[in-house]
């Protein structure tokens, strides 16, 4: 059939190509495995070199790691002690601050009380001194000194008040008569004003018009 179509030898060529392709694929697989193996060997070699290089550092790091753990544990323990101590100190500080505040308030109250007592003491001393002077003036034989005595001043004031009471009583008793007299004076004042107005009108009429026969004049006799 291949000879009829003019393509004789096509099958053989196809088979040969397939064998070559299979051989190439196998060779590529072998090459890839070889390269992978070489890469793995190189990587393992590099890892081994790094391990050898890091071995001293790791050897030094192990005791440092243990020391770090011990220091961390010690830090946590001391931190717990510090927190407990700080809490206690804060509590004591608050208590002391409250005590100081209370003592300051008490001190301020005592200072005020001291000043009040001191003022009262000075007032009492002044009163005692005045009482002594009053006693000396009262028992003195000098009339001028006796007049300075508070008792004499009080007696004089009492006498003046009694006199004022008597005057007030007299004013009250004469109030009705005085009011009547005041009313009379007011009526008199109104009457005088009325007379004055009548006289002024008469003068105005005389100056504007003919003479008018005047009647007898009214005069107020006091």
UniProtKB/TrEMBL annotation:
Protein origin, superkingdom: Eukaryota
Signal peptide: none
Record keywords, A-Z: Coiled coil
GO molecular function, one term: tubulin binding
GO biological process: cilium assembly; intraciliary transport
Keyword flag DNA repair: no
The keyword Coiled coil belongs to this UniProt entry's keyword annotation: yes
Recorded coiled-coil stretches: 61-120
Gene Ontology cellular-component terms listed: ciliary basal body; intraciliary transport particle B
Annotated spans, Disordered: 1-26
Basic and acidic residues composition-biased segments: 16-26
PANTHER family registered for this protein in UniProt: INTRAFLAGELLAR TRANSPORT PROTEIN 81 HOMOLOG (PTHR15614:SF2)
The name this protein goes by in its record: Intraflagellar transport protein 81 homolog
Biological classification of the source: Eukaryota, Metazoa, Chordata, Craniata, Vertebrata
């Amino acid at each position: 059939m291949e000879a009829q179509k003019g393509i004789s030898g096509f099958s053989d060529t196809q088979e040969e190509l397939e064998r070559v392709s299979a051989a190439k694929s196998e060779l590529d697989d072998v090459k890839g495995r070889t390269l992978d193996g070489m890469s793995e060997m190189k990587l393992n070699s590099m890892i081994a070199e790094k391990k050898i290089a890091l071995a001293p550092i790791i050897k030094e790091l192990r005791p440092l790691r243990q020391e770090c753990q011990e220091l961390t544990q010690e830090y946590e323990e001391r931190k717990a002690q510090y927190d407990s101590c700080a809490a206690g100190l804060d509590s004591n500080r608050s208590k002391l601050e409250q005590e100081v505040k209370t003592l300051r308030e008490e001190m301020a109250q005592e200072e005020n009380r001291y000043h009040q007592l001191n003022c009262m003491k000075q007032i009492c001393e002044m009163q005692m001194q005045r009482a002594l002077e009053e006693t000396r003036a009262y028992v003195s034989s000098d009339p001028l000194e006796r007049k300075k005595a508070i008792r004499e001043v009080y007696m004089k004031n009492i006498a003046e008040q009694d006199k004022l009471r008597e005057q007030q009583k007299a004013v009250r008793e004469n109030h009705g008569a005085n009011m009547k007299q005041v009313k009379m004076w007011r009526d008199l004042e109104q009457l005088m004003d009325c007379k004055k107005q009548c006289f002024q009108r008469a003068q105005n009429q005389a100056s504007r018009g003919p003479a008018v026969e005047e009647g007898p004049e009214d005069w107020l006799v006091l």
